[in-house]
């Protein structure tokens, strides 16, 4: 799997950069189909209500309206859901959150569609609304009356308003705490964060002459869309073809369906193409967000700083539908021990349905929340023990052959190097520089984490076309992170052709191999492996042809730069891909196709070491690591915290494209900074109070420090293509804790709730002065 | 024709249109109005655009001293206005932190003032600068002190059929003007702001402070200004902050709680005052 | 509301005539009538900056501009800006420096960056941060956008 070749390790520009800078890149809102209609959605005004009836007559009668769909258009059995199939395309029989899609209209213009949607009248019978997990657990009112009947892909333990529960344990937790000299227990709370990809969600559905659906959408996996539309509409997958335009960012918001099933249903009913593009407000209110977590964390240590026991208990607000939540619970708990040697561990938690917006996949997937808790507590422990926070961590981090919680073997572990390089680059030992002016306090803060990249199935097909050029088809969406480019680099490196000579096929469920999705930091690692595997097959077939054409043994041949096969040591004796392709197409053997598919095969759980209940993923992937130092200044007048500088060291196994790895580290840091300091979805009762960009703020150029130093660590994972692992999430998960630790060191006050708003910091400083 | 976009060439023509079309809205920079149209909060059938009226454009020095800022003057122009020296510096400082560079190309003084969003940066700056708002009506022009012009949430003294034609500033006095704003991120509306002018008048110092973002209208308290004038000690500055704090009527919103805004007022005032005093002290 | 207003304006150097409703925004007209989809709708409130175009050489939010009010004005979108050496330099620098990922905010970034460089030919890092604060990006963390703008500035005015 390891190879060194020119394209790997190069700062190659995005293969689609030019079309993007020229404004020619086509995103879902830019697509048009002949005679296309526009769709609009009527949202529920209530958090919890029975739907007694619909009156769509007025809407249907409006000029320009072609179709109306409601929950009645979807069969009761047709439910979708990644882990628990609890969701219809539109609210059926009940609404479960304010903003839930209830009905939809297709009309000649968007204005008519929106007006007609508002003209649909729905007779609701309000039900008591459950607005917190605690309230939902204590109540007899059920968000889902039939949760036991829902199809589940794992042992969720669903009951009442409990959507799922998960537990991991290793060792003997009670004995562990008894052995500890000191036990620390803290409670932390995190907020709902909105994805705010610059592009709102949207879809365009069209039915062809055979009655087959073609569906374009802003999505993170065409096969996920296909599966969900198939389930929600009760159509066989072969009747649905999913394609993908350029995607304007996603971060998890587009991993599970949003309006695709609705657009599809309207297109089938209207017998015309239908496009639905959500407004920014709808994107906030209808789709999904990051889970708020309540975390109780208890860690037992010896006086010399050795960690001996940790218990983490979490309570998650699921929102109204399960979506990816059971995965977030499971994954979050799997990360809750952190990358530390702790022999006695119990991580457990519950996911509870409420009448709020569904919470779902969001970059980090539970790890930002548990890392906030764990990394904050470790700093408290260090302070109590009189130890430097980094030294305490170095004493306890996993190394060499150590395993992750659950027992998974790690084939590469660059964490120690990440810690040391972040520490040294930031001159940690010297402390923060002087504050930038009077009335400010300043300190450095540190945090680290591990994050998996992997999960589920992927594949690659490489074809050598008649003219010798190379076509790479992986079915994997580039959501902006640059996977098209990185995978092309790997293909080019494997076949020794220039990157520009690899053509990348846009994902298409008709023609692409299955790929679960662009999520879980998995494409470089998982799909990259398949690219390398498929290229190996192509190489073998090229050599077979060349051996016959050159009359030698295949073993005597090697690939040479520029797309040719030559006799080893005799570069003049070579045949180009062009000639081989001609031969394969017209004379002997058939067109050259190489393919490879796989599912990550190392188990998460070793039953001899650990026990688990409700494990949502039996096998996940490789672990990446990150350690970061932040330099934070707090304004004593307002309490406002700002990050002046940051160093983020990430072990990515191998940087296929260092420029894109830096881009992930920088972008992940910015998103983590917003999460730490000011991003928060605020509910006013059952309704979202700030569903606009006026009211929900993400970092601008002024909030993210320019002095943001990405440090790439390469531990050369044996499973990874060219040794590479993922980076997309590991660079975000520790940010909040690092900033919180800096604020503690600057102000002497520990904050247990996110975000660290100026108000909270000021109140903390004033309280501690008393 | 009672619908569409009207482009009067003069203020008087604009006023006549407003009388003829009582449901028409005024289009100045458009930033606020079009956002409301996009959100379907406003659905006007007629708009009276002020873009073509020359007397509303730009900043003019007045013969008797002081300046007249035409209602259609963009924030970008005010931010760059080099003639706003001394105490009038408070205006460019406020203008330069409104939203961002692109929006400052669009938003206008008249539009902002008439909209009277309490989170805006101009209202407290105009009050601290002792500005007057020039209102045009069929009866002619009249000027109202900024402190009286803003009446309540999004409410001014403007009556139907009137429009803001200009904002008048007194002559710059030797001294300084500062505008301090606390917001969650760059370009956000203020959670709280302080506009402060410190003028040297003969041997004395006259200071005016106004607070923004902490209630329906900018807050100015005469007794606070009296305490801040001259060469107050920290006790007097603190007392002034307390007076302004007591006069504030902030709300809870996503930008901050009411209590936090109250906490900010004396703290931000003290800092703005210290900066102004240091800057005034360095001037000859 | 009918499309009752007849508006003549210039878009990317060509004379254009549109019949629009009073409340139609320039963003809608550019995207839906002229198929100039480079300007994007990210928020429709003027906050995100993805819709930034120029009117008579001045960057504005197309989502907050009424087409009816653009009578006689010259609009330029990213599609029409490539011939401008400043835009071309910025485009090339963005590509080389990795100043874009998903690309959704990029046209707006380029239009705003050109205006910044017109005001200030060699901005410091802080001046770039200040001048570009109205263009949100969720992907890059801005570092490489700043590098790209300063690289273009250096090439345009060595």
Largest interface: A-C, 55 and 53 residues
Major beta sheet, strand line-up of chain B = 4-5-10-6-7
Average pLDDT of chain B, rounded to a whole number, is 96
Strand content of chain B: 15-25%
Q: In terms of structural class, how would the helical and strand content of chain B be classed?
A: alpha+beta
In CATH's first tier, which class of the domain at 175-281 in chain B applies?
A: Alpha Beta
Low-confidence stretches of chain B: none
State the CATH superfamily name of the domain at 175-281 in chain B: CO dehydrogenase flavoprotein, C-terminal domain
Radius of gyration of chain B: 19 Å
General shape of chain B: globular
CATH topological fold name of the largest domain in chain C: Ubiquitin-like (UB roll)
CATH-derived architecture of the largest domain in chain C: Roll
**What CATH architecture of the domain at 175-281 in chain B do you see?**
2-Layer Sandwich
Number of strands of chain B: 13
| Number of helical segments with 4 or more residues of chain B | 11
Main β-sheet description of chain C: 5 strands, mixed
Tally of alpha and pi helices of chain C: 5
Q: Give the termini distance of chain C in whole angstroms.
A: 53 Å
Percentage of residues in helical conformation of chain B: 25-40%
Shape of chain C: elongated
């Amino acid at each position: 799997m390891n190879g060194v070749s020119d394209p790997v390790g190069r700062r190659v520009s995005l293969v689609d950069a030019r079309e993007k800078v020229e404004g020619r890149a086509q995103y879902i809102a830019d697509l048009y189909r002949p005679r296309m209609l526009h769709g609009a959605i009527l949202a529920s005004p209530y958090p919890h209500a029975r739907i007694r009836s619909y009156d769509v007559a007025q809407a249907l009668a409006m000029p320009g309206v072609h179709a109306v769909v409601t929950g009645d258009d979807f069969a009761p059995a047709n439910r979708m859901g990644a882990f628990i199939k609890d969701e219809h395309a539109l609210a059926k029989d009940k609404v479960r959150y304010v903003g839930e899609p209830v009905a939809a209209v297709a009309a000649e213009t968007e204005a008519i569609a929106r007006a007609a949607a508002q003209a649909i009248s729905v007779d609701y019978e309000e039900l008591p609304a459950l607005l917190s997990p605690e309230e939902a657990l204590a109540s007899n009112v059920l968000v889902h009356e039939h949760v036991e009947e829902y199809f589940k892909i794992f042992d969720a333990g669903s009951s009442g308003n409990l959507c799922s529960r998960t537990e991991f344990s290793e060792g003997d937790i009670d004995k562990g705490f008894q052995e500890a000299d000191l036990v620390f227990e803290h409670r932390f709370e995190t907020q709902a964060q909105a994805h705010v990809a610059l592009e709102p969600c949207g879809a365009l559905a069209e039915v062809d002459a055979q009655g087959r659906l073609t569906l374009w959408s802003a999505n993170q996996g065409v096969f996920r869309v296909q599966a969900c539309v198939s389930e929600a509409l009760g159509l066989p997958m072969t009747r649905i073809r999913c394609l993908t335009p350029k995607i304007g960012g996603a971060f998890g918001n587009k991993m599970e369906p949003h309006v695709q099933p609705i657009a599809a249903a309207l297109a089938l009913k209207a017998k015309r193409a239908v496009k639905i593009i959500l407004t920014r407000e709808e994107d906030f209110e209808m789709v999904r967000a990051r889970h708020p977590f309540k975390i109780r964390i208890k860690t037992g240590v010896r006086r010399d700083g050795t960690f001996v026991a940790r218990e983490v208990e979490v309570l998650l607000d699921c929102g109204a539908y399960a979506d990816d939540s059971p995965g977030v619970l499971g994954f979050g708990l799997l990360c809750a021990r952190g990358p530390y040697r702790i022999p006695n561990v119990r991580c457990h938690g519950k996911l509870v349905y409420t009448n709020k917006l569904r919470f779902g996949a969001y970059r980090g997937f539970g790890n930002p929340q548990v890392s906030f808790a764990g990394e904050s507590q470790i700093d408290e422990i260090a302070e109590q023990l009189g130890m430097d926070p980094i030294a305490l961590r170095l004493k306890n981090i996993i190394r060499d052959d150590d395993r992750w919680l659950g027992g998974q073997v790690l084939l590469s572990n660059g964490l120690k190097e990440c810690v040391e390089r972040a520490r040294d680059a930031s001159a940690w030992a010297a402390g923060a520089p002087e504050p930038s002016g009077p009335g400010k306090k300043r300190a450095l803060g540190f945090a680290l984490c591990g994050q998996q990249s992997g999960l589920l199935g992927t594949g690659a097909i490489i074809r050598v076309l008649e003219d010798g050029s190379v076509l790479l088809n992986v079915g994997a969406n580039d959501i902006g992170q640059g996977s098209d480019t990185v995978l092309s680099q790997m293909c080019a490196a494997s076949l020794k052709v220039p990157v520009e000579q690899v053509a990348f096929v846009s994902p298409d469920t008709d023609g692409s191999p299955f790929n679960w999705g662009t999520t879980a930091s998995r494409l470089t690692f998982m799909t990259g492996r398949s690219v390398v595997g498929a290229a190996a097959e192509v190489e073998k077939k090229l050599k077979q042809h060349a051996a016959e054409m050159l009359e030698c043994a295949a073993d005597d041949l090697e690939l040479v730069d520029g797309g040719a096969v030559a006799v080893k040591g005799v570069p003049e004796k070579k045949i180009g891909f062009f000639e081989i392709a001609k031969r394969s197409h017209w004379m002997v053997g058939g067109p050259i196709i190489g393919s490879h598919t796989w599912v990550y095969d190392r188990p998460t759980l070793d039953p001899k070491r650990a026990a688990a209940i409700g494990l949502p993923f039996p096998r996940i992937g490789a672990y990446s690591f990150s350690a970061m130092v932040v330099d934070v200044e707090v304004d004593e007048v307002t309490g406002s915290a700002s990050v002046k500088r940051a160093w983020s060291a990430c072990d990515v196994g191998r940087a296929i494209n260092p420029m894109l790895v830096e881009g992930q580290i920088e972008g992940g840091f910015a998103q983590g900074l917003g999460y730490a300091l000011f991003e928060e979805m605020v509910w006013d009762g059952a309704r979202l109070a700030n569903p606009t960009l006026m009211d929900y703020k993400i970092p601008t150029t002024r909030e993210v420090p320019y002095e943001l130093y990405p440090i790439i660590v390469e531990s050369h994972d044996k499973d990874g293509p060219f040794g590479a692992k993922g980076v997309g999430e590991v660079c975000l998960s520790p940010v909040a804790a690092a900033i919180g630790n800096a604020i503690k060191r600057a102000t002497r006050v520990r904050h247990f709730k996110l975000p660290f708003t100026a108000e909270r910091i000021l109140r903390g400083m004033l309280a501690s002065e008393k | 024709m009672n619908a569409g976009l009207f482009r009067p060439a003069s203020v008087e023509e604009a006023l006549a249109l407003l009388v003829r079309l009582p449901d028409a809205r005024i289009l100045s920079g458009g930033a606020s109005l079009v956002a409301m149209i996009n959100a379907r909060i406003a659905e006007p059938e007629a708009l009276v655009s002020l873009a073509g009226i020359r007397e509303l454009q730009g900043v003019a020095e007045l013969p008797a001293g002081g300046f007249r800022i035409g209602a259609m003057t963009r924030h970008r122009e005010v931010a760059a206005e080099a003639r706003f020296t001394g105490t009038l510096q408070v205006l460019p400082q406020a203008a330069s932190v409104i939203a961002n560079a692109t929006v400052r190309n669009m938003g206008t003084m008249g539009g902002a003032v008439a909209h009277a969003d309490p989170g805006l940066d101009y209202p407290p700056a105009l009050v601290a600068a002792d500005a007057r708002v020039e209102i045009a009506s069929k009866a002619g022009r009249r000027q109202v002190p900024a402190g009286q012009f803003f009446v309540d949430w999004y409410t001014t003294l403007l009556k139907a059929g009137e429009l803001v034609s200009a904002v008048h500033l007194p002559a710059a006095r030797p001294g300084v003007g500062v505008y301090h704003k606390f917001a969650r991120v760059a370009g956000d509306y203020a959670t709280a702001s302080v506009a402060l002018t410190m003028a040297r008048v003969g041997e004395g110092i006259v200071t005016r402070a106004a607070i923004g973002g902490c209630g329906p209208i900018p807050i100015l308290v005469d007794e606070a200004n009296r305490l801040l004038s001259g060469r107050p000690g920290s006790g007097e500055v603190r007392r002034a902050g307390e007076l302004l704090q007591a006069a504030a009527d902030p709300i809870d919103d996503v930008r901050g709680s009411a209590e936090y805004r109250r906490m900010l007022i004396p703290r931000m005032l003290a800092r703005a005052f210290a900066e102004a005093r240091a800057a005034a002290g360095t001037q000859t | 509301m009918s499309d009752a207003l007849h508006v003549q304006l210039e878009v990317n150097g060509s004379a254009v005539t549109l019949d629009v409703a009073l409340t139609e925004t320039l963003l809608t007209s550019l995207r839906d009538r002229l198929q100039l989809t480079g300007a994007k709708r990210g928020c429709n409130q003027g906050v995100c900056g993805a819709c930034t175009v120029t009117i008579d050489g001045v960057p504005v939010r197309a989502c907050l501009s009424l087409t009816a009010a653009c009578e006689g004005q010259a609009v330029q979108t990213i599609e029409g800006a490539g011939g401008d050496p400043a835009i071309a330099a910025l485009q090339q620098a963005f590509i080389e420096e990795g100043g874009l990922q998903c690309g959704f905010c990029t046209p707006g970034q380029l239009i705003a960056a050109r205006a910044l460089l017109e005001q200030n030919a060699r901005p410091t890092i802080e001046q770039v941060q200040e001048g570009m604060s109205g263009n949100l990006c969720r992907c890059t963390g801005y570092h490489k956008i700043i590098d790209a703008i300063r690289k273009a500035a250096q090439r345009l005015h060595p």
